[in-house]
Amino acid sequence: xxxxxxxxxxxxxxxxxxxxxxxxxxxxxxxxxxxxxxxxxxxxxxxxxxxxxxxxxxxxxxxxxxxxxxxxxxxxxxxxxxxxxxxxxxxxxxxxxxxxxxxxxxxxxxxxxxxxxxxxxxxxxxxxxxxxxxxxxxxxxxxxxxxxxxxxxxxxxxxxxxxxxxxxxxxxxxxxxxxxxxxxxxxxxxxxxxxxxxxxxxxxxxxxxxxxxxxxx
Amino acid sequence: xxxxxxxxxxxxxxxxxxxxxxxxxxxxxxxxxxxxxxxxxxxxxxxxxxxxxxxxxxxxxxxxxxxxxxxxxxxxxxxxxxxxxxxxxxxxxxxxxxxxxxxxxxxxxxxxxxxxxxxxxxxxxxxxxxxxxxxxxxxxxxxxxxxxxxxxxxxxxxxxxxxxxxxxxxxxxxxxxxxxxxxxxxxxxxxxxxxxxxxxxxxxxxxxxxxxxxxxx
DNA sequence: AATACTTTGTGAATACATTCACAAAGTATA
DNA sequence: TATACTTTGTGAATGTATTCACAAAGTATT
Lengths: 217, 217
Ligand SMILES: NC(=O)c1ccc[n+]([C@@H]2O[C@H](COP(=O)([O-])OP(=O)(O)OC[C@H]3O[C@@H](n4cnc5c(N)ncnc54)[C@H](O)[C@@H]3O)[C@@H](O)[C@H]2O)c1
Ligand SMILES: NC(=O)c1ccc[n+]([C@@H]2O[C@H](COP(=O)([O-])OP(=O)(O)OC[C@H]3O[C@@H](n4cnc5c(N)ncnc54)[C@H](O)[C@@H]3O)[C@@H](O)[C@H]2O)c1
What we know:
2 copies of one chain form a homodimer.
Chain A: H1 8-24, E1 30-31, H2 33-40, H3 44-52, E2 64-65, H4 66-76, E3 83-88, H5 92-99, E4 108-115, E5 124-125, E6 128-132, E7 144-149, H6 153-165, E8 170-173, E9 186-189, H7 192-197, H8 199-202, H9 209-216
Parallel strand pairs in A: 3-4, 3-7, 4-6, 7-8, 8-9
Antiparallel strand pairs in A: 1-2, 5-6
The structure holds nicotinamide-adenine-dinucleotide (2 copies).
One nicotinamide-adenine-dinucleotide sits between chains B (88-94, 114-117, 120, 133, 150-153, 155, 159, 174-176, 192-193) and A (96-97, 100, 102).
Chain A binds a DNA duplex through residues 7-10, 32-34, 43-46, 48-49, 51-52, 56, 58-64.
């Protein structure tokens, strides 16, 4: 079981498989790579290769035991234990994240939320009372190692710094900017605007109807 | 100028460069690949290689003319014309997207929003009045070709179908599922939960203090 | 038990992406 | 104008990821 050496692209796909497998639990006991492929839209050969990186454990002629596979993927991704996270910035996006129930399936729980706006501090969303961002200290003692940043771009670096100082070693960042952090801290940035911005590149160009008519004439 | 042949990874980075360049416009007239690198956190060699795919246009010894570079990237990404989009699902996440002013910098404008909840239909967010999702028809006539999906997972496929029927050829999907669409339609899925789920994999394991003490003793 | 069929698993081949090494073309300075 | 310096640009080399071809190991059927 060589946990290192798992390709980054495989690590990116594993949670997608996990998501599909959790939904397939009711369907039956086992699932084949081609059935899984139909759900997630990833080539079955790729799926088998991905699983092979941490040791084959399907049964030939049948497929993969779903429960076993879920356990295995959770272990690889370190999702076999629960994770507490804090949210910083309870604005539009932050509130949506705070209200989302879907993180629990992966073992995540948002344990606290922070903002700097006095109008927001003290309010409660989804049973979490928003605290003053000044109080982001010693999260390690509460066993919190994940921070979610949803503050304006200009404030993100300072917040990242506070989180790291408080003991956070993993950050999910929604701000459209790079965060400078120590090497041991992992940052995953979700940049909604840049994802939207590459959509037109892949879209077909408009057909010029006038031109088509000209060709006909 | 071979617009095809641009690597997918380069297309992914171009909007990131664009974002940084728009912010650098005030700073000066030109920017070097290493200065840009400092902002975006991407190796300068990689940056130059990326730009070289659509023809070198920096000046050696100086760098790249920022305005010219912005124009060029916008053209490649087809962001030189404006794009109208519709949002479907004005819930927590959808409302955040609707309220976000940052898409305008890339030439995007949300022209309409839809929901199926009678309690939401008729409400106005950011000058957009939410319409009944039944009315997603003939968007092509209004020159709308981009749809943003922020409805619950179970409803996403049906909404995708409606959007495609209405003439949409590009979809930004926030639902944690695959969407089956015709080949000509491009889907980019942002799956916040799966991005969060691969964070623990990269985070350092806890140091067991007790064990460390034992070693000392 | 033999045969046909299904599905996993893997080394090798291919495709794709990044990095290297260095030439080319500019600026700045004496 | 020569020399030093800076920065871009690119073919080749290296590294990473995907796909191919096929063996291996199971199930189902006769
Ligand atoms: N909403 C979107 O669709 C969207 C899209 C792309 C990117 N983003 C990015 O996500 C981030 C959040 O966006 P949003 O739309 O929720 O913005 P928002 O303005 O609605 O929310 C930001 C929140 O952060 C709080 N805040 C500001 N400074 C703070 C500080 N120092 N400490 C703690 N809290 C602080 C504000 O009080 C506010 O509640 C931004 O960086 C934005 O660029 C959002
Ligand atoms: N909020 C998050 O942080 C988060 C994180 C990960 C994924 N997501 C995904 O994003 C999507 C939206 O999440 P959300 O938190 O905004 O959910 P939400 O429940 O707050 O909003 C969903 C909205 O869609 C509307 N809707 C339902 N069926 C519809 C239909 N047929 N046509 C039009 N509108 C319809 C609902 O009325 C509601 O307003 C979901 O698929 C969710 O899984 C959200």
